Amino acid sequence: MPRVAIVITAKNEERLLKQNLRYHFALGIHKAFVYFDGVTDNGPETIKNLPRVVAQNSVEPEKYKHLENLSKFTSNANEHHTARQCLNTYDAMLKCKRDGIDWLISIDADELFYPGSDIKDLSVFFDALEAYDVIKLPPLEIINRKMTYTNVMLEESLFKTKKNFKSRLDQIYFDIKNPYGNKSFTISYWLGHTMGKCILNVKSDIIPKNVHRYETKDNTKIKSITKGNILHYHMYDFEDFIKKFKNFEHHPPVFLSGNEIGSLKSLWIQLVNDPKMTKEQLKEYYKKNLLFNEKKLKRLNKTRLFNLVRRKEKAIVEIKLPRQILSNIKHD
Question: What total number of domains does the chain contain?
Answer without folding.
Answer: 1
